[in-house]
Amino acid sequence: MSTTFPHLLLQHAAHRPQAPALREKEFGIWQTRSWHDAARTVRHMACGLVALGLARGQNLALIGDNRPHLYLGFVAAQALGAVPVPMYQDAVAAEMGFVVEDAHIAIALAENQEQVDKLLEVRDSVPGLSHIIYDDPRGLRNYDQPGLHSMAQLLADGAAWDKAHPGAWEAMLAAVQPGDVSVILYTSGTTGKPKGVCQTHESFIGAARGAIEVDRLGPDDSILSYLPPAWVGDHLFSLAQWLVAGFTIHCPESASTVAIDMREVGPTYYFAPPRVFEGMLTSISIRMEDAAPFKRRLYERCMALARRVGADILDGKPVGLWDSLRYRLGDLLIYGPLRNAMGLSRIRVAYTAGAAIGPDLFKFFRSIGINLKQFYGQTETCAYVCLQRDGQVNLTSVGQAAPGIELKLAPNGEVLVRGVSVLKEYYQRPEATAEVIDAEGWFHTGDAGVIDAQGQLRIIDRAKDVGQLASGAMFAPNYIENKLKFFSHIKEAVCFGHDKDSVCAFVNIDFEAVGNWAERQNLPYAGYVDLASKQKVLDLIADCVAQVNADLAREAGMEQTQIARFLVLHKELDPDDDELTRTRKVRRGFIAQKYDVLVDALYSGKREQFIETQVKFEDGRSGSVSATLAIIDAQTHPATA
Which residues fall within 8 angstroms of residue 41, CB to CB, at 6 or more apart? Predict the structure, then answer.
């Protein structure tokens, strides 16, 4: 049963050569590549890489958006026994330089001029990077730096090398084994320098097979591949499951056309982090607030019905005849058009992960007939630990152990995992590997959780982040932050409280959602800094905080962690400013140091605090943003748990 990714590709090419494997939207038209085309491209690409000097056991960097040649580049490297190392396309040159040096990269495959420019900058400090292959030639016509090669030239050279070395391709494939490292995925670096996670063919293929078994995926399914290829979730969905199930992946024209491409493709299988689903609901809410009164009333009545019976209908539970008939009418008038507007009209299965999703948001999508479920995993587990089975969806859990996975809790509540998807090792970091995999093979996730009687896992927070207030009460900052981010007007939040008398918070507003709200309130504003300082906006956020505190007051053990004071930051937290990781996880320790004057102001009783912050702009320039921030006392509630 064990196999490798190149062998899976060749099986599809042999058994269904003309079936669509990849589709890419270019110049407004969807271009299709068959499995036969994909296999031929991989063969020529692999041989071209060998001609450049890439050998078994060496690493190949891949940087770019979701493009066919990038996904085929993974398989080409694997076919010759080399290891692909994807990097985030929005990473700055310094971040790329760390990975290039740490993984000993000599050859990189880049999408376009933007990525080539960053790699050329990296090469000034990491001279071992000798060859850069680019896919899109636009803007690169006059580049004459040594070691630059076009994808077209690589494929032509590969075809010639293949012809001149009969039997070499077959010999390379025969040497590839299921236990070989198939990819190195770098962690987000939330607490320090990123580490390279070495995953094998059999671990990712095992994870893919388990998920496919649960959700009955097959060749007739299709997905839109739009998430960063360096992220473990995209590697599972767009590469591992693609090659195991044999469905079709679609590469959007650009990041800005994803919503349009979704509607054109109509994927049957979809994944998005909660922030994407939040954006969809925010867009719908904005449109409905601007709709005619009759449409608003119809929408509200239909959604009230959907909230009451929609999830039961989706799960096949009994519903009264009258409600069932009314729901069908609502599906014709409201729910169906909503799904179509979001590009979800053909969805059989949709997943979310990466952060907690708000119960109201979860209920909304399930109530209008979208089979939205949660899963849980990490880079070190191929994004595969827990899945929610149909009919067993729990709004507050991430599901039960996936096929091939064992799950248990350590005495301190840390989630431990053993099974098919656990990493082989951290790249050249044996001491780090020994820290997370114990003698019995259990991987220590670093997450604190609870397992209920049905085997459903609920994640509370990162184990290392769970602290105590001065009173001794448990303090789980991420748990509280997620509750804040469930509100459409709040984009990010950072909570403090370990060893303190109370919990305080930084809040980032969602500029689009709050901006639309401000326009309907006839509230003028000049930009983000101005909008974030408006008294009406502060009152709006204060109401959100009060509702979170009311929720915490009803939860046993959490009532003492209500937010006492908060402020609305004058700038958005940004990966380019090192405040978030590239996967948008909060770097809480770094933020506490960077904004220590604001933390001190929250806990010293001040009513306002001036701050000037250095920022990096998208074009590489640096500047500063300053403001006097109001500090707000939040409404708290007596415990009712």
Answer: 33, 68, 69, 72, 76, 155
Distance CA 4, CA 239 (A): 12
Q: Residue 173's CB: how many other CB atoms inside 10 A?
A: 18
Same domain, 447 and 485: no
Q: Read off the pLDDT of residues 344-378 as tens digits, 9 standing for 90 and up.
A: 999 999 999 877 677 788 899 999 999 999 999 99
CATH number where 178 lies = 3.40.50.12780
Determine which helix (DSSP H) or strand (DSSP E) holds 401, and give its type and residue range: strand 400-401
| pLDDT tens-place string over residues 489-524 | 999 999 999 999 999 999 999 999 999 999 989 999
CA atoms of 608 and 629, how far apart (whole Å): 5
> pLDDT (tens digit, 9 = 90+) per residue, 98-124?
999 999 999 999 999 999 999 999 998
Q: What pTM did the predictor assign?
A: 0.81
Range of the domain at 425: 397-463
The amino acid that residue 306 corresponds to is: A
One domain for residues 48 and 162: yes
Our count of domains for the chain comes to 3
The Cα 132–Cα 146 span in angstroms is 9
pLDDT tens track for 240-291 = 999 999 999 999 998 889 989 999 999 999 999 888 888 888 888 888 888 8
Q: C-alpha angle 417/420/421, rounded to 5°?
A: 70
3-state secondary structure 481-525: HHHHHCCCCEEEEEEECCCCCCEEEEEEECHHHHHHHHHHCCCCC
